[in-house]
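Progress against Task 2.4 (sequence-to-structure conversion) is shown through the following example record, which the project officer requested during the mid-term review.
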Amino acid sequence: MMMKIVIGVLGIGLGLLFAIKNEWFLYNVGRIASIERYLGSFGGSRMFYQLLGVLIIIFSTLYMTGMLQKMLNGILQRVFMVG
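Structure tokens generated for the chain above:
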């Protein structure tokens, strides 16, 4: 249980880093050509880094609270008709 909390807090920190410091990632990692093609008019790679940060925060919170496993079990049971 304690390890889930530690991993969740680290994930939230990483997500915040992506969401807040997107300009730093853009400068050091560079633009992503396929993302620029689809999201070019909405900010392109900057928007992608922010969305990635928000998704990391959401999934880290779900993992930390134990809801990620329940959600994946529910989805996979419906897809594979198990149980």
